[in-house]
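step: validate -> pass
step: tokenize input -> pass
step: predict -> running
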Amino acid sequence: MEFRVDRQTLADAVAWAARTLPARPALPVLAGMLIEVTEEGELSLAGFDYEVSARAREDADVAEPGRVLVPGRLLADIVRNLPPHPVEILTKGSEVVVRCGPAEFGLLTLPVEDYPTLPEPPARAGTIPGDLFATAVAQVTPAAGRDDTLPMLTGVRIDIEGDTMWLACTDRYRIAARELTWSPADPGFTAGIVVPARTLADTAKSIKRGAEVALDLGGVADTLIGVSGGGRSMTSRLLDDQYINYRSRLTGTWSSVAEIPVAPFVETIKRAALVTERGTPVRLAFTADEVRVRAATGDSARANESLAIRLTGDDLDIAFAPQYLLDGLAGIDTEYARLECAGPTKAALLTAIPDKKEDAPDDASPSKDDHTDTGYRYLAMPVRLTS
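step: predict -> pass
step: emit ->
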């Protein structure tokens, strides 16, 4: 095997394939990265841990095709630190030689014949713009659970009905959901699956910007999902598809509806959170034209700040874990957000208010009747107030 490739191209491809390399591999060969080059000039790098596979494909100048397995993390460290010159990689006996400008490294190969066969993704289900997919995944995954004893809650639920896709995560104390439109291969396609949240989040943000993302999904008995775009692909085992009926919980009758400027509200919450300790909430007191944000840590520190808002309905005194509020607000990219609630002990719904149209008056603010849907929903349980 012998080929030559641009250093940055190789670094990006190696970084992608190294994502799946296990820290403590069950088998020594799983610590390896599979390198393959073809006579047609395609370079493929792959990693696999029996749960997730990642493969990067790039063009290369191939002098001799071949297939080899090398220590993956070591290769990633080496390539990341190479000087800015083209990289030549070739096999010499039991070594893989990496040359870049004045630098040369030799890596002892692993037994490629012992490497497991990479899983093939299911059939193509449809496509979605990569930037839209990355945004939607980033909006919902902060609400995924971290407790591996409840695997279902550590995943992203993906529901598909025709050209409509829903993504959702919950850790039992909040729900983040996003509805969007995609392009199914079959207009009647339906699916309901749960994908590990960390895997999907890492994949979505790492696919090249502007690339179209393809999703590969099989039938009811299939246990894999494939995600690919921009020369990058991954497969992942699915989690148990049992999931709460989250969509029914994102609607309700609200006695208090507040319209809030997002950026100032985020800064206010962050300042108030400076005086909180772990588990200490921030308290929000809503009246007709302002919200007063308060927080305290015993008698040692306190914060008190007000912000102009517009409230329709009943005054409201409610408290939240500050990070829960910030996670929900991070998913909103409009100027104003809407917070809807039915009381201080009921879950509150946070949504985005679409920005005003360009031909609207400069002093226009969101209309109380404007419930245009941006597709994003964030439901959070409040902290019960004791006084």
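step: describe -> Helices lie at 7-18, 72-80, 130-140, 197-206, 262-273, 322-330.
step: cleanup -> pass
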